[in-house]
UniProtKB/TrEMBL annotation, chains A, B:
UniProt keyword Transcription regulation present: yes
InterPro entries the UniProt entry points to: DNA-bd_HTH_TetR-type_CS, Homeodomain-like_sf, HTH-type_TetR-like_transc_reg, HTH_TetR, Tet_transcr_reg_TetR-rel_C_sf, TetR_C_27
Record keywords, A-Z: DNA-binding, Transcription, Transcription regulation
Organism: Streptomyces thermoviolaceus subsp. thermoviolaceus
Residue range(s) of DNA binding per entry: 30-49
Domain of life: Bacteria
Name the UniProt record assigns to this protein: TetR/AcrR family transcriptional regulator
Pfam families per record: TetR_C_27 (PF17935), TetR_N (PF00440)
Domain HTH tetR-type stretches: 7-67
Length: 196, 196
């Protein structure tokens, strides 16, 4: 496959950028490296992303979106009872983050640098996750299994109370053997707190 | 006051070590610097702390003990109802950590390096905090206000569920204006979860 014969899409640029970041590290990776990997001029890359900062923000968003897209299906699964859905959603979030940290530690370290420099992208990601949680809490309140309250602020509290299991600053602790049991204990307590 | 005329106690060495660490930073501070600050030979320092690593561990422990000692009074205050004691204890823990981070950011950064290299000391500190929490939970279960359960594992879950408000990796978020309200929302949820 000759890369130049394919249409240069934003998605192809982002894929190449991730690979370049993995290989060169976030401090050294340049737009010229990305263009070279794709066999195009750096001008072609700039037609899709006006600046290097914009490209880095977009690749960060893509990485974070992979997690939130996978979780949306669970959040909106009306077949499952809200309490069960909530538990599954947090387990899935934990597993997704732990797998990202464990499967490719170098890429994870790269994205830690990128998330640090892209506070707005991270803020939008967290807002999306809290919005998904809010939908589960709303469903629980609507059906009367959860005590009444403001779904959005309850969702935020749930997200904060589980930081140990999804905030990357805790990644080192995610390989502890008891971590799954700890997550379940925290979820037990929170679900009891939610119950009507 | 001439420092050499005073008895050289472990406490005086630890005070001087903290000051030296603050001034030189954790990478550069040496035992010779500490001895010089006290006007004694480095041999005199080594009579109290056999190695530099031992001295750094001891100064880390002293820093962490300041927080846990202040909290013990709240944990064991039998005059206050367990639910109230629990809420006060977590607020105090949050305020102590936030003040340490905010009042002297350089010293806080120094201690972040020291805690990273003294995992055992940090482990003992967390065990002490969870033991205090366990005593509050026990009191709540004994009086029937909290649902029955294993106090130690409930205490661990409470500690994990509040990581956002005391783990130093979240320090950057402790100046957000809504953080106190968020802590209260999390505590509301947890206390509902504990209730009999």
């Amino acid at each position: 496959m000759s890369p130049t014969t394919e249409t240069l899409t934003a998605e192809r640029i982002l894929e190449a950028t991730e690979e370049v970041l993995r290989r060169h590290g976030p401090a050294k990776a340049t737009v010229v490296d990305v263009a070279r990997a794709l066999g195009v001029s750096h001008g072609s890359v700039y037609r899709h992303f006006r600046t290097k900062a914009e490209l880095r923000a977009a690749v960060t968003k893509r990485w974070l979106d992979r997690t939130s897209r996978a979780l949306a299906a669970t959040a909106d699964d009306g077949e499952r009872a809200p309490a069960l859905r909530l538990r599954d959603w947090f387990r899935q979030l934990f597993e997704a983050k732990r797998d990202k940290a464990g499967a490719d530690p170098e890429l994870f370290a790269t994205y830690s640098v990128l998330t640090d420099e892209n506070g707005e992208v991270v803020g939008a990601h967290i807002a999306e996750l809290v919005a998904q949680l809010t939908r589960i809490v709303e469903a629980g309140m609507a059906s009367g299994v959860f005590a009444p309250g403001d779904p959005a602020s309850v969702a935020r509290a749930l997200f904060r109370a589980t930081a140990h299991f999804h905030d990357p600053c805790h990644a080192r602790e995610w390989t502890r053997p008891e971590i799954r049991d700890e997550l379940d204990s925290v979820l037990d307590l929170l679900l009891r707190g939610l119950a009507a």
